[in-house]
Amino acid sequence: FAFGLGSLKLKAGANPVRFVNQGKQDHVLGLLKVADGKTADDALNWFKTHQGPPPVTFMGGPASGPGGRNSFVATLTKGTYVFYCPIPDQNDPAHTPHFLKGMWTPVNVA
Asked: CA-to-CA distance for 69 and 32, rounded, in angstroms?
């Protein structure tokens, strides 16, 4: 599992984002804003432990089935963001979410 973000460049302000699901399962292109003073690793650790308040703001994001497309406009401020997919792996008996299998991509907005 992975996101192919290619040459995606994000800036402060409005950013159109197009999402094409080339996988064999449903996916969400979820977007998180990491709290100031925290890192994407801090956020990932929180998702693994759920200890303390979440060091992120959940910003939503579009979903798509296999072969589908979707888009949205991400209005961003400076800081660290993470694209992630919270959908559980339908072929994994433990239902591990896709972001723990590689669909976790931090990006910086300058």
From this structure: 20
Distance between CA 37 and CA 2 in Å, rounded?
26
What pLDDT, on a 0 to 100 scale, did the predictor assign at position 71?
92
Give dist(CA 57, CA 43) in Å, integer.
Answer: 10
Name all contacts of 14-17 with Cβ < 8 Å and 24+ positions apart: 14/73, 14/74, 14/75, 15/73, 15/74, 15/75, 15/76, 16/71, 16/72, 16/73, 17/71, 17/72, 17/73, 17/74
Predicted TM-score (pTM) of the model is 0.92
Q: What is the mean pLDDT for each group of 10 consecutive residues in the chain (110 residues)?
A: 82 93 96 97 96 96 95 95 96 96 94
The answer to whether the CB of 45 falls within 8 A of the CB of 88 is no
Q: Rounded to 5 degrees, what angle do the CA atoms 21, 89, 30 make?
A: 50
- Taking the alpha carbons at both ends of the chain, their separation in whole angstroms is 27
